[in-house]
Write a structure and sequence with these properties.
mainly alpha; Glutaredoxin; 3-stranded mixed beta sheet
């Protein structure tokens, strides 16, 4: 095909441009897979290291959720977490968010063991907040679906700490 006519050339340009636009759109939707069901509107970081970097850069606390696919407690918590508008809104706007299905090398993230689900907060000074705990003395950082209001309080506490301490 000869591309001498302006029409043929502009059609080619349109085809290339729309393919590019679709590729860019796909790129934008990448966080969906990182959400793993915890909230598709949230922008999730991929690694703990990226989370620390973003927390420091944005001056937002990092929320780390450890979970496993085949854990019924994780599934139940995930459902409650994803369905709670207040949590989703705070996670979207005020936190750097990470959910992990493997352990990190940072031992500070498992001060009382490597159980799931567990949710921990890291402040922008990159300090793991061992003082923000759940309701259970045997597994300090675990939450159950009925603990969602308590988790909301802890999220607010993590945000307050930044204002008062850092």
């Amino acid at each position: 095909i000869m591309l001498h006519s302006p029409l043929a050339l502009s059609l080619l340009l349109i085809a290339v441009t729309s393919n590019l636009a679709m590729a860019i759109k796909k790129e934008k939707r990448a966080p969906q897979t990182l959400s793993r069901g915890w909230g598709d509107e949230i922008t999730w970081v991929q690694t703990y290291e990226e989370g620390l970097y973003q927390a420091k850069k944005s001056n937002k606390p990092l929320m780390v959720i450890h979970h496993l696919e085949d854990c019924q407690y994780c599934q139940a918590l995930k459902k409650a977490f994803a369905e709670n508008e207040e949590i989703q809104e705070m996670a979207q706007n005020n936190f750097v968010m990470l959910n992990l299905m493997h352990e990190t090398t940072d031992k500070n993230l498992s001060p009382d063991g490597q159980y799931v689900p567990r949710i921990m907060f890291v402040d922008p000074s990159l300090t793991v907040r061992a003082d923000i705990t759940g309701r259970y003395s045997n597994r300090l950082y675990t939450y159950e679906p009925q603990d969602i209001p308590f988790l909301i309080e802890n999220m607010k506490k993590a945000l307050r700490l930044i204002q008062t301490e850092l």
